[in-house]
Amino acid sequence: MKIDLPGLLKEKLPSGNYRYRVRVERRKAKRVRLHVEPGHPEFMEHYKAARHGIEMPPPEQVEASRDPKTMRGSMNWLVAEYLGWFEAQVAAGQYSAATLKQRRSQFRHLEAVGEYSLEIPQGELLQLRDGMAATPGAADNFIKSVRAMYAWAVERQICEANPATGIGKLLKKHAGAKPWTVVDLQRYRKIHAPGTMAHLALTLFMFTACRISDVVHLGRDNEFERAGVRGLGWQPRKKGSAFVEIPMLPPLYRATRSSNVVGASYLLTEKGVPFASPEAFRNRFRKWCDAAGLQELSSHGIRKAAGNLLAQNGCSQHEIMAIHGHTEAKTSEIYTRGAERWKLAGNAMRTLEDMEW
């Protein structure tokens, strides 16, 4: 096989056999031997290493000493490569650490096929998905993550096809978190009186409509004043969300000032420090809901309740978008930004202020 690469030397030995060596780039006097010949699947990898002065050992030695979980070309190897890239993207601010943690957890389901080739048949993925039928949401998220990983691999020519393409969902479409009703809100407030952290949490959710990933970070540093009106502004952690600015209505202001303990955030633990993570606060809020007999409800349902109440009381789609931090309406796909968002949010929040909840 004839191949023409910079620095590649084909040398005939006294025995009549041939060997390949490579001149090191910018160090022509130094030559590195290749232990594979043109046509070998790892030839280019060995050649590029040699150009940098690195002599890679014969493939059989590599396979004998390499941990099977990271064998090049295996499923475990692909997962490790992808997660390594993902970590760099998180460090660059392109993805969230929570998404990386979720992907790591989901890829554990690939351990059963980890030592096999990354060119996994689609039928194998279907079996893995169907084995998670008891948790269909988790099964669908697993396939979603695998699909993303293979899309990354195909783009980098690591493999030719994405075996997760075309695999359908197990979980049928549903309405998601159950919205709180006015009765639910009153029931919670009856158990958790003003001045308690539990009451403040509900008030924050209701009068900001923010996600649990944001509520644990909100504090006095997010407050500002514009034209004599105190407001609250924050950039939602969810990727693609618009910056949110809303007037800080009296019920919310009173709730944030009802505690004698002031910290870096509004919501604090018994020790007077912010919650370590959204998940830590989620567990605490779960206990507060259970104490009020609202076992089937969650914090996200409050966000939906706020949206429903606003819509029922005549707020437009764009007014609700301004509060929820959405950038696109599903029907019209029109953006609302800047001063218009502030005005729309103000109108919507005044509607919410007059509601019976």
Question: Please, could you describe this protein's structure?
Answer:
By secondary structure, the chain is mainly alpha-helical. The protein folds into three domains: 58 residues, no CATH class; 86 residues, DNA polymerase, domain 1; 172 residues, hpI Integrase, Chain A (Orthogonal Bundle), CATH 1.10.443.10. The chain has 14 helices and six strands. Strands 1-2-3 form a three-stranded antiparallel beta sheet, covered by helices on one side. Strands 4-5-6 form a three-stranded antiparallel beta sheet. Strand 2 and strand 3 form a beta hairpin. The protein is elongated and about 95 Å long. The termini are far apart.
List keywords for this structure.
3-stranded antiparallel sheet, DNA polymerase, domain 1, 357 residues, hpI Integrase, Chain A, 14 helices, 3 domains, mainly alpha, elongated
Write the topology of this structure.
Elements: E1 8-12, E2 18-24, E3 27-34, H1 43-51, H2 59-65, H3 75-91, H4 97-106, H5 122-130, H6 136-155, H7 182-191, H8 197-208, H9 212-215, E4 223-226, E5 229-234, E6 244-247, H10 250-256, H11 278-291, H12 299-312, H13 317-324, H14 338-353
Antiparallel strand pairs: 1-2, 2-3, 4-5, 5-6
Helix pairs in contact: 3-4, 5-6, 8-10, 8-12, 13-14
Please identify the oligomeric state: single chain
Q: Order of strands across the widest beta sheet?
A: 1-2-3
Q: Name the helicity range.
A: 40-55%
- CATH homologous superfamily caption of the largest domain: Intergrase catalytic core
CATH architecture field of the largest domain: Orthogonal Bundle
SS field, number of helical segments:
14
What name does CATH use for the topology of the largest domain?
A: hpI Integrase, Chain A
Number of strands: 6
Major beta-sheet overview? 3 strands, antiparallel
Q: Can you write the helix and strand succession as a string? A: EEEHHHHHHHHHEEEHHHHH
